[in-house]
Amino acid sequence: MGLDPALPALNRTVLGPGPFVLLGVLGLEALHTWLSVPVCLLYVAAVTGNGLLLGLVAADETLRAPMYQLLGLLAAADLVLATSTVPKALAVLWGLSREISFAACLAQLFVTHVTFIAESSVLLAMAVDRYVAICQPLRYGALLTQRVVAIVAVAAVARGACVMVPPVALLQRLNVWKEGGIPKLL
């Protein structure tokens, strides 16, 4: 069942919103280049610092304790979070790209929110780690192993995905029917 070209454009089904126009910081358009400098420097600092931390945790045998591995997970979450949002913001501030497609927006939304949720799970695991280290110091090595840290990492990402898959799937199925200029959700 194709679209009838004789129908007016307002009566056609659109399979998703078109691209979104990103404006940057409203009222400060003339300063976008200057605003991009601290954003870029902070991004470079975040990528460098978190990359170094991940490299140290991976390379040094003495940093194989669960506490350091959890710090590595936190650094990885921060790295993913920064990398999923800042490059597009810099592209807007530099005037290289003013649009984002609906699919790219959904992907960015999904990755950002899954990372936030995973980061909160890792922070909870770090609190439990310190609790066990203080309250059960003799059993710490037996309770918190590398396997437990791996399970925490998988559970953190799975928790974030379970929370974010339904809204993103529903948003992806969003159809807008325009009748007389009034959008209706199907």
TrEMBL record:
It is a multi-pass membrane protein. GO terms for cellular component: plasma membrane. It is found in: Membrane. Keywords: G-protein coupled receptor, Membrane, Olfaction, Receptor, Sensory transduction, Transducer, Transmembrane, Transmembrane helix. InterPro entries: GPCR_Rhodpsn, GPCR_Rhodpsn_7TM, Olfact_rcpt, OR51/52/56-like. The chain crosses the membrane at residues 35-58, 70-94, 100-127, 148-169. Residues 49-186 form the G-protein coupled receptors family 1 profile domain. It comes from the Eukaryota. GO terms for molecular function: G protein-coupled receptor activity; olfactory receptor activity. Belongs to the G-protein coupled receptor 1 family. This is G-protein coupled receptors family 1 profile domain-containing protein. It comes from Ursus americanus (American black bear). The lineage of its organism: Eukaryota, Metazoa, Chordata, Craniata, Vertebrata.
